[in-house]
Amino acid sequence: MPRRKLPVGQLGTIRYEKVGPRRWRAHGYVRTFADKRLELQATGGTKDEAAAALEANARVRVYENAGAIIDGDTPLLELLELTLKAMRDGTVGNRKLRVQSVNTYERILPLFSGKQGDRAIGRLPIAECTQPIIVNWLMKLSERAPANAKLSKVLLSRAYDVTAMHGVNVWPMNPTYGVKLRAKDREDEEPVALTLPEIQAIWQNVQAWQTPYKRVDLVGIVGALMATGFRPSEVLALQWSDIDLKATPKARVTLTGAIVRQDGKLVRQGYTKTKAGYRVVSLPNWFRDMLIERVVNAESVLVFPNTKGGFLDIVNVRSKFRDARGETYSHVKLKSFRSSVATAIEEVSGVEEAARQLGHASPAITGRYYVRRAADAGDHTDVLELFAPTQSAG
């Protein structure tokens, strides 16, 4: 009768031999995922210590898979690089990611190498990257950089999917499952809602900054942000063909794309962030007049091109705006105009109309992230009535 094969990853009968006064050696066989039967050995001060060392050795060796792309000895960083390739190709996760999204994850790879002071777990073989090690690393990173910790968690979760695809069952479950990371500070999430006096003051500062020698049309860009509620990257992608200045009763603009950076190059992405983002927005008369002034001398298909007619880099535009906005408004960013537009429309017409203007499929997103509301303190007047002044005698 043929010998029954060992289950994959399970040690066979362990044999012991005494190799010194206080030294034991344990021997055993383990079957790998490549269907190889390996003989292993390990030593320890007692039988139990030798057996524990043998089992630890087996846990690493079981993933050896000659000719495979990854195995238990593959460094975590190499697995993450393979994961990023799979995310580009759409072979892992629910869908193929946009190039700029993959680039975002690529930028956090140095974290795993310890280049920013974090523990260099990227150098560890994946068989040694246990769940406690990964969880501890994520929690430590979360204390310093919550946003990067969130990205790292997603990347590690996709890496788990890649190991499963390649039959390397190094983690019994997703090592990031259930990890609760520190959230960003509330102040960072609070939308900015500019008042009319604040908007007028910023207008004056930007107009004072804009001189004939300034090559970025910051007045026009800020105007577009205020007039539409578009994202800055969407404003920079506006083409004259998207705008109908003769439409009645109001001029209109159709949002058709955004300027993004893909693999280090600026490109115009010819579609919106979501399906709901593809929309027609009516323009206020003051912005229509601004566009009429600009279209006369237009030499590019873009409404806001660089000096050569190409794409403006949002990084440079943000820098120009920081110079122009004034110290009083250092908390105001280009994206602040989007939340200001949403809040202004919500106060007059409701959150549903604000969502339509911003291109959100759900008003809940608009209300949560873009509309600034005062907290409702409730009605406690029955208590406060007790503080009414008494009538003086006489």
UniProtKB/TrEMBL annotation:
Membrane-spanning residues: none
GO MF annotations, alphabetized: DNA binding
Pfam families: Phage_integrase
Signal peptide limits: none
Domain Tyr recombinase, chain residue ranges per copy: 189-385
This protein's UniProt keywords: DNA recombination
Any one biological process term the GO annotation gives: DNA recombination
Family matches, as InterPro entries: DNA_brk_join_enz (IPR011010), Integrase-like_cat_sf (IPR013762), Integrase_catalytic (IPR002104), Tyrosine_recombinase_XerCD (IPR050090)
Entry protein name: Tyrosine-type recombinase/integrase
Organism: Corynebacterium hiratae
